[in-house]
Amino acid sequence: MSAQTGTTGADLKLIDAYWRAANYLSAGQIYLLDNPLLGTPLEAANIKPRLLGHWGTTPGLNFVYAHLNRVIKQREAEVLFITGPGHGGPALLANTWLEGTYSETYAEVPQDARGMAKLFRQFSFPGGVPSHVAPEVPGSIHEGGELGYSLAHAFGAAFDNPDLVVACVIGDGEAETGPLAASWHANKFLNPAQDGAVLPILHLNGYKIANPALLARIPHEELDSLLRGYGYAPVYVEGHEPEVMHAAMAEALDGVFDAIERIQARARSGEDTTRPAWPMIVLRSPKGWTGPSEVDGLQIEGTWRAHQVPLSGVRDNPEHLRMLEQWLRSYRPEELFDANGAPVPELGELVPPGHLRMGATPHANGGTLLRDLRMPALSEHAVAVPEHGGSTSEPTRVLGRLLRDVVELNDAQRNFRLFGPDETASNRLDAVYEVTGKQWQGETLPVDDHLVRAGRVVEVLSEHLCQGFLEGYLLTGRHGLFNCYEAFTHIVDSMFNQHAKWLGTHRKLGWRRPIASLNYLLSSHVWRQDHNGFSHQDPGFIDHVMNKKAEVVRVYLPPDTNTLLSVADHCLRSRDHVNVVVAGKNQTPDWLGPQEAALHCARGLGIWEWAGNDDGVEEPDVVMACAGDAPTVEVMAAVSLLREHLPSLRVRVVNVVDLMRLQPESEHPHGLSDHEFDAIFTTDRPVLFAYHGYPWLIHRLTYRRTNHNNIHVRGYKEEGTTTTPFDMLVLNDMDRYRLVMDVIDRVPGLGPRTARLRQLMTDQRTRHNAWIREHGEDLPEVRDWSWRS
């Protein structure tokens, strides 16, 4: 055995054989409908009618996987493999089948000729599996269909996983994306004393779909300076000849694993607490490596033409069919698989034992490792409400104290983190700093607040990184919360898409165990971004979320502090959901006591009997509905005006916490039956609905309801500026005076006898406009308003 590489010539020959087997299985998935062992000459009938898949990145992925197997087995290392390049599905399917985890997971795809045929047929085939490394693939936590998130996922997985090495292959096309470019900075947050390690493997195969890759075309010195500037110590494995490349990769992996062990040992002994230069590998190999070098006079291997299917029209072109067979036989499958189609025993010598196989690691099926959060009693944090609306509090500040206790109660388990883009204190969750700090490995200065080497809070001014860290953390069996300004959560729209799609598929796979939900807290919301202006005013993330599968998404709009606590407690305990909670950080009336809040949140929506004056026997004249803290205040203020000026008008107040309750039960698990909906909202009375976001969403959720034609919604209609809080409501016609006018206009028979009241409401809006322009603040009766029962 060489002391330099830790490998013998026999080891390298075995790795090469394993690599050839994986390449053969990968190419077979793209092309073969049957005849998996090439027992007879290939015929057109053996070829799939539609050739779908991507060959270009696959041999490089197989190369890395085979070499990692050797290291894992020799060192008994725990390694999680993350596939960044898009469409790497053939490689991971091939490798997990070779190591046995695929057949253990899917008994219908055994390690024999029948199973190989099934493996080939199902790939990118109707009723089969996708071309990405999707949830169906054992050992995966990252789909790779949309590029840019692999490295953030890797670091999220490594947090609080001290014995784990996350090997993250980054495609050179992927490396051009903004999220990936920011992700290089994640090493400034990884603590070698308590976290695992991330091994980035930048795979430069030169091309994307049709263009050269940037990082593959800059001079070596520039690339090296870039990576070292990010804080890494790159090791280069470059070439084409398999024999040379195998030796170089083996040496590189031994070197970087040694470096990781040294870094962690020195940090954990207290010998060195400075930020290390973590090792990484730059692998430069041809795109479509080992595939056809030339087809129809055009170069394939090493060019963009190898990206997808190097040989097309195989069914109709005898020459292409001959070339395909020659290509497949170049891997010498007769040496790699026995007569029954099973991998020969020699290949099994490279496979790590049991759960150390990368397809079997429990870290890729995080629900198997998940432990329940220890939660504080809500009674310890609930605000006392002796009178409805008689006091005020700051909802997210109180929530911060609950999260502080969550951090403290789970400190020993180290399974909860709070992520945010420099907004934890701004969103008034800063009570958490009483028990933890912000994890930070960079330079610190005396003026810095709460920066520590090991903390439960991670703040970085990149919503992409916050989301990616949290997803990786959740998918590997932990819990967390992402707090963000509402308007800028849109930055992760696409990342949310991918996670929601992952969960939708994950929930259907019986072998994947439930994971903790992805929880968003959206604060500094549209109605209180009056000081920051139009750029900070956008409630549309809710609309985006509502497009996803009903079994996955939930949206909550708690109207006050106690309802926020109840919702947060529920969300932090939940599994396999994306929970979006929108809550304000400013002083808000306390509408419900703790027990009332718990009941109201359990119902999801309900009639506030104490706020209205319908007796429950006769139908109300009008239903005043609200969803969100600011809309609730305006509805309650409008109701108080109606009580004062139209005391005989029967008003019912309905508050909505769980937006999904508005949908029919056929459309969402939380949906109300038509009978329940009609009982609450009536079948024929005007419903005036003040809603936190864009008003058309309420119409979309209720369009099938009996009384939909009578539902009139007020909400944000893209009117904003730097102004006063109440003026934001006036600009969007959701203020109390406008709501009273709506009642007058829509309740039959009120118009003629309420002309003076309507004029008064119009005058109040006019007076408001003049007042704020003279005084720079809201009218005293608005600013100092409070509910009186």
Automatic annotation (TrEMBL):
Annotated ranges, domain Xylulose 5-phosphate/Fructose 6-phosphate phosphoketolase N-terminal: 10-368
Listed name of the protein: Probable phosphoketolase
GO biological process: carbohydrate metabolic process
Pfam families linked to this entry: XFP, XFP_C, XFP_N
Ranges where the Xylulose 5-phosphate/Fructose 6-phosphate phosphoketolase C-terminal domain occurs: 585-787
Cofactor requirement: thiamine diphosphate
Family: Belongs to the XFP family.
Organism: Actinosynnema mirum (strain ATCC 29888 / DSM 43827 / JCM 3225 / NBRC 14064 / NCIMB 13271 / NRRL B-12336 / IMRU 3971 / 101)
Keyword Lyase: yes
Coiled-coil region(s): none
An MF annotation (GO) of this entry: aldehyde-lyase activity
Keywords per UniProt: Lyase, Thiamine pyrophosphate
Entry EC no(s): 4.1.2.-
